């Protein structure tokens, strides 16, 4: 395999990673909107569509393994291909968390719409921004941006704490809302995990460029 062919394969892998990232982002946005609107049928379609995302991940994985087997890359080239394998795993997990939010919607009781979700939409906005920014840093191999993006995870954690405080207060004030607020806590947890997965992607950007694996977000705040 010539150098030009290897570069072409890497460009295709990068395009595939961006496609998978776009699919994961859409799953997050759709899951939040279906939760807000109480649209159970929409949530069921999101759950079903997760299989398509899984298949896309495995297609990329097979292509990356082929590149490793046929080219036997070394040093930075090997790190670049290996990072693809890790990043697509995180993207597939991000989509799983979106599916989890869709499943939560199927469990919630009907209530006046659109649902009041407190800080959850802000969490989703921040998590989606982290996803977009982390993939941009990956394509541009921007180590400085990757490190900065991880700092946004602290904001997601603070928002999760606010969701927790609001939900606990609501449960204490009205025990009849315990189940509803428990589901909102689960939703916030899924969003927090999405943000954590984005920090993993950023760590892979740093690894690809520098050859060092650093934990970029080791503390809350």
Q: Which structural class do you get from the secondary structure elements?
A: mainly alpha
Distance between the termini: 47 Å
Task: Figure out the total of helices.
Answer: 6
Based on Cα principal axes, name the global outline. elongated
Series of secondary-structure elements, N-terminal to C-terminal = HHHHHH
From the alpha-carbon coordinates, what is the Rg to the nearest angstrom? 19 Å
Largest sheet descriptor: none
Strand content: under 5%
Portion of residues within helices: over 70%
Structure summary, number of beta strands: 0
Give the integer mean of the pLDDT values. Answer: 93
User: Ranges with pLDDT <50 over ≥5 residues?
Assistant: none
Give a quick rundown of the structure.
The chain is mainly alpha-helical. Helices cover 84% and strands 0% of the residues.
List keywords for this structure.
221 residues, elongated, mainly alpha
Word description of this protein:
It is a single chain. The chain is mostly helical. It contains 6 helices and no strands. It has helices at 3-37, 40-71, 75-107, 120-140, 143-173, 178-210.
Question: How are the SSEs placed, and which strands pair?
Answer:
Layout: H1 3-37, H2 40-71, H3 75-107, H4 120-140, H5 143-173, H6 178-210
């Amino acid at each position: 395999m010539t150098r030009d062919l290897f570069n072409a394969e890497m460009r295709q892998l990068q395009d595939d990673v961006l496609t998978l990232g776009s699919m994961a982002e859409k799953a997050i946005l759709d899951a939040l909107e279906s939760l807000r609107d109480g649209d159970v049928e929409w949530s069921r379609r999101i759950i079903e569509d997760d299989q398509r995302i899984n298949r896309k991940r495995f297609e990329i994985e097979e292509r990356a393994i082929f590149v490793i087997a046929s080219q036997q890359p070394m040093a930075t080239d090997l790190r670049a291909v290996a990072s693809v394998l890790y990043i697509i795993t995180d993207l597939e997990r991000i989509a799983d968390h979106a599916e989890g939010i869709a499943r939560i919607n199927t469990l919630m009781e009907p209530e006046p719409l659109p649902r009041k979700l407190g800080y959850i939409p802000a969490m989703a906005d921040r998590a989606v921004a982290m996803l977009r920014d982390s993939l941009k840093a990956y394509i541009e191999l921007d180590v400085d941006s990757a490190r900065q993006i991880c700092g946004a995870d602290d904001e997601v954690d603070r928002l999760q704490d606010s969701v927790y405080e609001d939900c606990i207060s609501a449960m204490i004030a009205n025990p009849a809302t315990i189940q509803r607020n428990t589901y909102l806590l689960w939703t916030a947890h899924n969003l927090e995990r999405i943000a954590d997965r984005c920090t993993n992607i950023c760590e892979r950007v740093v690894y690809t460029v520098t050859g060092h694996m650093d934990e970029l977000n080791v503390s809350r705040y």
